[in-house]
Amino acid sequence: MHGYFELALLGMWEREFSVEGRTMTPGLVRLALRRTVRDVKHVEAVRPRRARGLVREVYRQVERDFGMLAPPIALHSASPEVLAAAWLMLRESLVAGGAASRAGKEAVAAAVSAANSCPYCVEVHAMALGTLGEPAAAAAIEAGDTAAIPDRGLRALTAWAGGAGRLPADVPEDAAAEFTAVAVAFHYLNRVVSVFLGPSPLPEAVPPTARAKAKAVLGFLLKPGAAPPAGQALDLLPAAPGPKPGDTLSDAFSRAAAAIEAAGERSVPSRVRELVRRELKAWDGKPPGLSRAWVEPVLAELPAEERAPGRIALLTAKSAYQVTAADIAALSPERTDDRGVVELVSWAALTAAVAAGDRLRPRREDFPGRNGDDRSGEDVASGKGLTGD
Questions:
Q1: N or C end: fewer C-beta atoms under 10 angstroms in the chain?
Q2: Which residues form the Carboxymuconolactone decarboxylase-like domain (predicted)?
Q3: 111-131: buried (b, 16+ CB within 10 Å) or exposed (e) per residue?
Q4: Active-site pick, 51, 109, 121, 249
Q5: What is the enclosing helix (H) or strand (E) of 63?
Q6: Cβ(219)–Cβ(130) under 8 Å?
Q7: What is the rounded CA–CA span in Å between residue 381 and residue 253?
Q8: Are 362 and 174 in contact (CB under 8 A)?
Q9: Is residue 89 part of a domain?
Q10: Using an 8 Å Cβ cutoff, are 321 and 191 in contact?
Q11: How many domains are contained in the chain?
């Protein structure tokens, strides 16, 4: 019995933690939250007490700025550079202060997650949105009915994030860049979460009658505090070419993408990378559905020994919820180490996320009357400076 609610399930939260009184015993809460790394499937996440070097520094920043050691970040820890890349994208897009409101960014995160059929991320970020004063919007996103969101601005924003509309014209360009970055980050995170985590942040042991109370506890823990300054995580990874000088957001994504591209070169066969890029270029972004029949004909051009990693890469890119334990087990022995598995999935996830971001990217005509070189989310979403191509 473990997960976000180990503390609550043991009955300790009633004695040590008060949602209404907003008091808690930080050591006990942190201990319970750190144990969520056990929820990771297929690979073993580094336990906090064993973390060293870059992994320890990323864990420290995640707990400091996000409030807990989030499993969607910790699952990358078998590959320290990819771990840093995942955190850099999440922190600088969603967590750090900027022009866009945190509620708006959480709404984008939840809407993208719903479009990608990632119930884990929908539940987490809808809860966070609810704690920011938008419970009706959170409930509508969880129910799959964004048209029911009362606030017109949030309704339009979530429609755009879900791929069903254009970004509202009254969104300033700097905020548009941040919303686009959040969308790209969650197109990435949804895919790796679907592969390595279960469908809910709540442990399976939580009975239906206790879910409301358990979600109240998690919602309290997820409520964002004061936004930390942007750019403080940049030094986790070396600088990469691509961003405009002084553009912290594009700098963060360029560093992250360079690290993940290098991981792909280590762990993903070149023919698989070429195949995935070609498939994504022709894809409209719509999930292929429940059937996996589309995968095998595409894999036919690969040599037999590369079809197992090719299958995982293609599924991760287009329908990560279809990756199974059998797919992981089918990898050849030299590809089944935890670092290689994480890097395979991570590379495919980011390649798909960049393609998704390009479809979402606001165009110049979305900002009538604006001049100059501002490209809104272009550097983040178009792939320029992100994929190493």
A1: C
A2: 83-133
A3: bbbbbbbbbbbbbbbbbbbbb
A4: 121
A5: helix 53-65
A6: yes
A7: 9
A8: no
A9: yes
A10: no
A11: 1
Task: List all residues 6 or more positions away from 51 whose beta carbon is below 8 Å from its beta carbon.
Answer: 59, 77
For residue 56, being part of any structural domain is answered with no
Q: Rounded to whole angstroms, how far apart are CA atoms 240 and 242?
A: 7
**Are 6 and 203 in contact, with CB atoms under 8 Å apart?**
yes
SS3 per-residue string spanning 91-132:
HHHHHCCCCCCHHHHHHHHHHHHHHCCCHHHHHHHHHHHHHC
pLDDT per residue rounded down to tens, the chain (389 residues): 344 444 444 333 333 444 444 444 444 445 555 566 788 999 999 999 999 999 999 999 999 999 888 999 999 999 999 999 999 999 999 999 999 999 999 999 999 999 999 999 999 999 999 999 999 999 999 999 999 999 999 999 999 999 888 888 889 999 999 999 999 999 999 999 999 999 988 766 667 777 777 777 777 777 788 899 999 999 999 999 888 888 999 999 999 999 999 999 999 999 999 999 999 999 999 888 788 999 999 999 999 999 999 999 999 999 999 999 999 999 988 778 999 999 999 999 999 999 999 988 766 555 454 444 444 455 565 444 443 44
The letter for the amino acid at 378 is: E
User: What single letter denotes the amino acid at residue 115?
Assistant: A
Q: Which domain holds residue 162?
A: 77-365+374-389
* Beta carbons of 88 and 250 less than 8 angstroms apart: no
What is the rounded CA–CA span in Å between residue 349 and residue 257?
11
Q: Is residue 277 part of a domain?
A: yes
171 belongs to a structural domain: yes
Residue that the structure tokens 């599924």 belong to: 315
CA distance 153 to 151: 6
CA gap 169, 171 in Å, rounded:
6
Q: Is 118 a catalytic residue?
A: no
